[in-house]
Each structure stands twice: as structure tokens, then as C-alpha cells.
Amino acid sequence: MKVETLRWIGDHLEMIDQRVLPLEFNYLSYYSASDVSDGIRTMVVRGAPAIGVAAAYGIALEAQANQDFHKDIFVEKMESAFKELATSRPTAVNLFWALKKMKDLFEDIVNEGSVVEIAEKLLALAHAIREEDIAINHDLGMHGARLLPDEAAILTHCNAGALATAGHGTALGVVRSAIQMGKKISVIADETRPFLQGARLTAWEMIQEGIPLTLITDNMSGHLMREGKIDAVIVGTDRVVANGDVANKIGTYMVAVLAKRHNIPFYVACPLSTIDTSIDSGEDIPIEERSSDEVTGFRGLQWAPSEVKVRNPSFDVTPAELVSGLITEKGVVFQPDKVKIKTLLKKVS
Ligand code: MRU
Asked: Which of the listed residues 16, 94, 193, 249 should we mutate to test ligand 1's pocket, taking the one with most ligand atoms within 8 A of CB?
């Protein structure tokens, strides 16, 4: 089955409810920015590029829902939709990237044309952002696939697959592209505590396409590396900053340190929309802290004492020096640093 994380059906957005996978598979319907913002916050949709696409549709939906208002009121409602969506999750820069694209268009056209025309143009841009994401992932996937040997076991952390994007995936996009090239690739997935994106989502997604996968808990990767069972690590990212530091799902840093210790390449699949040069170093990336319930239990089952003190940072930062390469849609930046990232962005601007 081809995974379609977000789809536009007639007059509304549908998103796979990723909270209930793999036990249930269903789509939820969205009609306003507020609903989409809630879907992002509660992790119905997650993964940096998918969040960006969802936010773009959130803006398009809001415009559509307010088409009967006078322009002044319409503009007020749109302004508050932009603000609300921007507060849904803090770490993935794709959210802000997509909102900026939508805002730039909105500001360009707000004084021209009717509210209905504005709504149509915003929806067209949201569709384009979704299509572009899929195309980017295919390009990125091809660049990454060329790095892999003809036969390889790839460790991944979290879910950077079709479910985390509009389609194909970033880290798992590299796996898919390599398989399409005829390479014999298998995936080893960290379960990814506490939200279990690896066990629930990566495992489910790979099974849909019959891609061989072995699930491990987060504390097993060092052992497998030592046994020589992992040929490369490929992860996604929520934000790469000017010096090449990488924010990704909590636990990524640990895997990068282990990979270095074992001389295993550690690649980060990174669409250009995930690079944020407004921040110099990883220390300044906002790290989302999520609810303690995710650590003390899961789906209503509690295993830790109610009184226990909990930390639940949802992301960590891997310093650039541990990254063997950033795989982008425009090619691979080996051993990324400030100069190489600047050069890459200059080339594409
Ligand atoms: O909290 P999540 O599930 O949104 O975290 C997702 C990740 O950390 C992914 O690795 C990242 O967004 C890249 S997705 C292509």
C-alpha cells in the first residue's frame, strides 16, 4: 500500500491519525486552521516536512472557511490563523518555512482580487508545497541511495518516512530509492521511546511495502554496531542550523556518538527547507518539552509512580562533527560545516 499521509478531498484536508497506528488505520478530516493546529500539537501528523505541509493546508482551509466575510474581517481571521499555527510545535523549522511561504503569498495578493480568489491561490500554493515535498524526497533519495553499498543494513531512528512527509520520506526515502536502484537494503529501526515512532510508524510503513525490517529497542544499537550488523545510520532532521548542527528526535545524538565510535557513517537526510541559517549553532535550537505522561506510561497504561519527576525533551542536537553527510535534494554535503552549508545555499538561491 502506498502511504498517503495528507490528502485533499473535495473541500477539506484528511490526515492519517498517526497516534493510533499500527493498531488502527484511519483518516481524520480537517476544516480549519485551528483544527490543523490541534492535529499538529497532538501528533495526529508529525515529522518536520509533514507538519509544514499540514500548516500550509491549515492556512488554505482558514481562507476557504472565511470566504463570506468582508475583507477586513477575513484578514483578521487569517492573521490569527498564522499565529495559532506557528505555536503548534516549536522545533521543526519546516512549519515556519511553510507558513512564511503562505504568508508571503497572502501579503502579495491581499490587496488584489476578491476573498474567493485569495482563498483559491492559497489552496493552489498548499497543493504545490505538498507536490514539491514529494519531488524533493525523490531527488534526495537518489543522492542518498548512491552512497550505499549494493547490500546494506541501515539503522534509523524515529520515523523519517512517508508518514513524516507528503510521500516517499527522507531517511526512508533513501532506503526506497536504493531498493528501486536494485540494492539489497534492510532496515533496523530503533523503537524510539517515548512516542514509539520507530516501533509503531517505521515498522508499519516498511511492512506496507515488504521492505525487510528488524525492530530493536533504543538501548540495543551499540550492541548491534559492535557485532558489525549495521552498515550505515540514516536519520531525518527537524532543523539543521548554520554550523551544521542537527536537531532530531531525542536519542539521535546517542546513536551518532555510537556510530562515530564504530566508524559507521552517520547520514542526515535533510531537505533544504529544514536548514535554518538564522540560528548559528545547535545550542540555540528551541527544543520541545512534551508531557510527562509520555514517559510515565503509554496509551493509558502507567508504569512509573505518579509523583516521579520527569524530563521529556522531544529532540536533541547532534553536533556537526558527528555527521558524515547531509543528504539534500541538491546533493550530499560531506562533513558539513558553516562554509559548506553557505556554499550549498548560495548555489541554489
Ligand atoms: O516528534 P516527531 O515525530 O514529529 O519527530 C520527528 C522526527 O524527529 C523526524 O526524524 C524528523 O521530523 C524528520 S522527518 C522527515
From this structure: 249
Supply the pLDDT for residue 349: 83
Record the pTM. Answer: 0.97
**Mean pLDDT calculated for residue range 239-265:** 98
- CATH code for the structural domain at 6-138: 1.20.120.420
Cα–Cα distances in angstroms (integers) from residue 343 to residues 142, 282, 333, 346, 347, in the given order: 21, 19, 10, 5, 6
Chain center to CA of 299: 23
Can you tell me the distance from the alpha carbon of 349 to that of 345, in angstroms, rounded to the nearest whole number? 6
The residue extents of the domains of the chain are 6-138, 141-348
Please provide the size of the chain in residues: 349
Candidate from 16, 238, 246, 318 with most ligand 1 atoms within 8 A of CB, to mutate = 238
Provide mean pLDDT across the span 111-125.
96
Q: What is the pLDDT of residue 197?
A: 98
Asked if residue 314 has its Cβ within 6 Å of ligand 1, the reply is yes
Distance CA 23, CA 25 (A): 7
The architecture (CATH level 2) of 141-348 comes to: 3-Layer(aba) Sandwich (3.40)
Distance 50 CA to ligand 1 centre (A): 9
Asked whether residue 337 carries a pLDDT value surpassing 90, the answer given is yes
